[in-house]
Task: inverse folding
């Protein structure tokens, strides 16, 4: 199959989010095939490294269940077709926050990834790194120290770095994280948050989509001929 969207879910807490995301995707791309991979326990975030083998498509957009599609995704597919992989830098851009990674290794957000089968070696390496590195995260919230025992993005960062891969880097509009990113230039393509999309965001998107200066210039020039 040519192009399609992939979701990977496990447990019961993602179903309402998945329903919301699917509805948003169908509103923008009503004819885009969708495959939902439902994994049995003990599936976890680390299972996302399997997305290439789980996808039945030649060109895939993987979407976390808590995403909302707000705009046409064709450009992301086109860049994956050209480069094999297209994604956004994480809101925390340095993977050094993980105990097993240092230096300036870049961390990418794995909630929205466009890829083709040409990127299969990256996903294979991602799974291997998941098995051997410490991907825990510690932070302080209200004076209380907390710890996340593992995270999928550490292995992905190591895979991209170790294979000297150069994914096409999409702007944050393609994987917008409102809890961390407070300003942007529209339109937003994918809202990535469990919270609902404010109506003024949608209205702003409509205005931004209409501000196609290149299209206006082309139309003006055509009318002048």
Result:
């Amino acid at each position: 199959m040519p192009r399609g969207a992939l979701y990977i879910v496990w447990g019961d807490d993602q179903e309402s989010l998945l329903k919301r995301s699917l509805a948003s995707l169908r509103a923008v791309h009503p004819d885009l095939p969708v495959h939902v991979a439902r994994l049995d326990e003990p599936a976890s975030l680390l299972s996302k490294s399997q997305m290439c083998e789980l996808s039945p498509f030649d060109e895939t957009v993987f979407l976390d269940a808590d995403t909302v599609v707000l705009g046409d995704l064709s450009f992301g597919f086109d860049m994956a077709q050209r480069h094999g992989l297209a994604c956004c830098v994480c809101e925390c851009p340095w993977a050094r926050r993980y105990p097993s990674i240092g230096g300036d290794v870049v961390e990418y957000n794995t909630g929205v990834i466009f890829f083709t089968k040409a990127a299969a070696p990256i996903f294979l390496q991602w799974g291997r790194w998941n098995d051997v590195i410490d991907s825990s995260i510690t932070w302080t919230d209200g004076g209380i120290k907390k710890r996340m025992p593992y995270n999928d993005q550490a292995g992905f960062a190591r895979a991209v770095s170790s294979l000297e891969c150069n994914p096409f880097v999409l702007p944050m509009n393609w994987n917008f994280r409102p809890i961390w990113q407070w300003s942007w230039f529209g339109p937003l393509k994918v809202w990535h948050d469990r919270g609902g999309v404010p109506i003024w965001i949608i209205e702003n998107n409509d205005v931004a989509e209409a501000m196609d200066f290149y299209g206006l210039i082309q139309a003006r020039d055509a009318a002048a001929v």
